[in-house]
Specification:
Blueprint (H helix, E strand, L loop, with lengths): L2 H6 L2 H12 L1 H42 L5 H5 L3 H15 L1 H5 L6 H7 L1 H16 L6 H26 L7 H15 L19 H25 L3 H21 L13 H8 L1 E4 L2 E4 H19 L1 H11 L1 H6 L4 H27 L10 H11 L11 H20 L4 H26 L1
Antiparallel strand pairs: 1-2
Length: 435
């Protein structure tokens, strides 16, 4: 430790620096030593790869094929010659991309992506312990469990891009699940929430659940955007209030405060049913998640609203000067999140087969953690749809893998907690480096 720097610090900072040095500081020092050996191996690999690419380019040019071929001339070539020509063009175009690793600070790269490396090793450990983990059945189950989580992650991901968060996510999902479950019980079920309610089209409860969730999220967005209350505090208060409201609704049914079940067969089939595509049985939940992934990607990347969202998240003042309505954009992002929470609650009730005022508890933690692990930064203005997908899949694979090995649930909480803290720490480190 640097004694001179310690003497210049106050007593509190000095104590914190000493504790850090002899705890996490030692861990990071050991990690850097290990990374040094990995850096050497990766550098050698990329140098070899670069040389192979250079030889490919040299061969391409010396064979007299480096010249540009006119479209008319290329059209006369056979299919296989066009395919071969396309491969050689691709090979040459990739040279510079991979050669940059020779000059890149690989250690920084490994530290910044350490969370992915650790998770990859955890997954590899599960596979080694139980090779049956690598099966189509397990893969399908993981995708099915990830589907609803992914929809929720898209909702809170947009809020995180705005430098915010949403602790009311779980309660919004629970409220939407209770509404959907109470309106879609089978007519023959003895303990119906609404005994005299006729069978409703599935779209009606879905729209109601989405509207209710969007309404409460809009209030959150309004409080954050207009009154400038920190999203953590605003959504924390909303979470507590919303839990009280949904508990009152839950207890108001004919059978009293007991889990709502006995769903209409149409509802169950719509959510947990399967579609046969090219002879393969694919759960409908996976298809819904895929559709929402495409929709959110278009919204985030190809619309003015999406560009405004990133602008507000990156620098609200600059966005305001550029003509972006910061208040409107913020509220709209929260409303979009609420719509996704409502959809997630509608799907989740049928997936688990019942709903109560405890449904959705702690869902916000999994969704926020998945977004951060996937690279959606709390510093604002940074994040991709692909990052949310990767984050959700990683967390689901880890959870499923630990359950697959029969690991104690308490150890699972510890591992998840460490991953979340590490992800936030690495995200903060990258933000500090950029500034």
């Amino acid at each position: 430790m640097n004694t001179n720097r310690l003497n210049q610090m106050g007593p509190v900072k000095r104590m914190a620096a000493i504790v850090y040095h002899y705890t996490l500081g030692k861990v990071f020092a050991l990690f850097k030593i290990l990374m040094g050996y990995i850096v050497v191996l990766l550098t050698l690999f990329f140098r070899f790869y670069g040389r192979v690419r250079r030889l490919t380019a040299f061969w391409y040019k010396t064979m007299g094929e480096g010249r540009e071929i006119e479209p008319e001339e290329e059209a006369k070539l056979s299919f296989f010659k066009r395919l071969w020509l396309g491969y050689k063009r691709w090979a040459v175009s990739r040279i510079e991309k991979y050669l940059h690793w020779m000059n890149k600070d690989t250690r920084d790269f490994l530290v910044n992506n350490a969370i992915y490396i650790v998770i990859a090793f955890l997954i590899l450990f599960v596979i080694i312990q139980s090779p049956s983990f690598l099966s189509v059945r397990v893969f399908r189950n993981i995708l099915t469990q990830s589907s609803v989580r992914l929809i929720l992650a898209f909702g809170v991901g947009g809020i995180i891009i705005l430098q915010g968060t949403d602790l009311s996510l779980g309660r919004s999902v629970g409220f939407a699940a209770i509404i959907s479950a109470s309106l879609l019980q089978a007519a023959t079920y003895s303990s119906r929430f609404y005994p005299d309610l006729p069978a409703l089209p599935l779209i009606v409860p879905l729209l109601i659940a989405m509207f209710v969730s969007a309404f409460f999220s809009a209030i959150n967005g309004f409080v954050v955007a207009v009154f400038k209350i920190h999203p953590f505090l605003a959504t924390l208060g909303a979470s507590v209030a919303l839990y009280g409201i949904l508990s009152m609704y839950f207890a108001s049914g004919a059978p009293g405060p007991q889990p709502i079940g006995g769903f209409d067969a149409r509802y169950t089939e719509f959510v947990v049913g399967q579609l046969s595509i090219f002879g393969m049985e694919i759960p409908k939940l996976i298809i819904y998640a895929l559709i929402m992934t495409i929709v959110i990607w278009i919204i985030w990347n190809k619309t003015t609203f999406g560009k405004n969202m990133y602008a507000v998240g990156g620098n609200p003042e600059a966005a305001k000067i550029s003509g972006v309505n910061v208040v409107k954009t913020t509220i709209m992002v929260y409303i979009m999140a609420g719509i996704l929470y409502g959809m997630g609650g509608f799907l989740e009730a049928a997936r688990i087969g019942s709903a109560s005022n405890g449904t959705g508890f702690n869902y916000e933690l999994d969704a926020i953690a998945a977004c951060v692990v996937g690279g959606i930064s709390f510093s604002g203005g940074i994040g991709k749809v692909s990052g949310a997908v990767v984050g959700v899949l990683m967390f689901t694979i880890i959870s499923y893998g630990m359950n697959f090995l029969g690991m104690d649930v308490f150890y699972q909480y510890i591992i998840k907690g460490v991953i979340i803290v590490a992800a936030v720490a690495l995200d903060t480190r990258k933000y500090i480096q950029k500034t």
